[in-house]
Fold this protein.
Amino acid sequence: MAAHNKLGKEGEEEASAYLRDKGYTILHRNWHAGRKELDIVAEKDGTLVVVEVKTRRNDVFGNPEDAITPRKIRNIVASADAYIKLFAIDLPVRFDVITVVGTCPPFEIEHIEEAFLPPIW
């Protein structure tokens, strides 16, 4: 496995552990349907929480959350829509971002709740 893929996987592990520690129930990790993909799908307090995880070695080239472009947001929202339809979910939905910075534990973790709203098409 390439080093950047290994770091990304470690970041998602850390993000999942962080969410569990905060009382979230992890429903799926790395959920795929065709080309649609969601990093983490969780539930807390009757809300479906779709979490995009961004892992970086450092912030030399900017903050990890800056990599979430309008196009990426559209893809996440479309994937969440497919997920909701597939599993017939009738809950409010929130889109969060978790950034994980570092090369090994302990990582620096930031949880940005309601990081973005679905765009209006």
